[in-house]
């Protein structure tokens, strides 16, 4: 993918997630599972007061504000879309949490922060939209301090995506750019992360898509009755995509899950605050052949051989 294409995808994605239609369909929380899943991720990452957290591709700031309110940490949100950033700032001010939050426009593939600035990085439903995932992963590792945490929640795709979904709309709707859990793990390992815990949250995705389908029908009805004017916007592609998404989620091709590496390696130096606990946990668990609460542990490059989901 060349640089122009890369920029076009980011801009298109940001514009899409700033649009009135997306606001109508999703509200301010632009990921499956809502703030309950965000809070779960924050709890599992051990967020707490005095920590500095970065939310990469924070959208309209709902998760950042929630994490600051719930855990008392300082959260910086970064998003490509300037309108999203403004909405996030307004939300934080509205909720009286501006002193614990900061928002700025920027690119996940070139984070505007010094090395080792944050104690934790989260990114929800966004990694899949980044055209250059390897660079984004390296950037996340760079801005994290030693003994810090990463929590990603994202769309996953197993196998090859049908051709009709490999469109630009498919990309900004997080499907066309999504990878398998193994691919995400491999990309993150190359960036220096290790000791992964993976959770399947496919049900949350199904619920969100079903909800979007219901709302699309309501929007169509309102347009038909002349109560809503969407201008040139054609709802039919969105309806088709949502219908296809339900089929693909139900058949297991498309999913949603979180990945939490429990260590960041910098060169030969490894920081893994929970390495011993992880080893004990791993020993206690049976490795299942499905994508549900799995540990991916070991040396970079080893994961593919130990990972039971590996098809290679
Ligand atoms: C599906 S939304 C998720 C937003 C937010 N994380 C949430 O869960 O509510 C995807 C977000 O990624 C942002 N985005 C896409 N590419 C980006 C990039 N390269 N850098 C920063 N943000 C990006 C979009 O602007 C959009 O807000």
Number of strands: 9
What CATH architecture would you give? 3-Layer(aba) Sandwich
Supply the CATH superfamily name. Vaccinia Virus protein VP39
Query: What does the main sheet amount to?
Result: 9 strands, mixed
Overall domain count: 1
The whole-number mean of residue pLDDT values reads 82
Rough outline: globular
Q: Span between N and C termini?
A: 25 Å
Estimated share of beta-strand residues? 15-25%
Q: Do you know the CATH topology?
A: Rossmann fold
Q: For the record, what CATH class applies?
A: Alpha Beta
The computed structural class is alpha/beta
Number of helices: 12
User: Percent range for helical residues?
Assistant: 40-55%
- Small molecules (ligands, ions, cofactors) in the structure: S-adenosylmethionine
> Strand-and-helix sequence, N→C?
HHHEHEHEEHEHHEHHEEHEH
Poorly predicted spans: 272-312
Radius of gyration: 19 Å
Task: List the keywords.
Rossmann fold; disordered C terminus; 312 residues; 12 helices; globular; nine-stranded mixed sheet; 21% strand; binds S-adenosylmethionine; alpha/beta; single chain
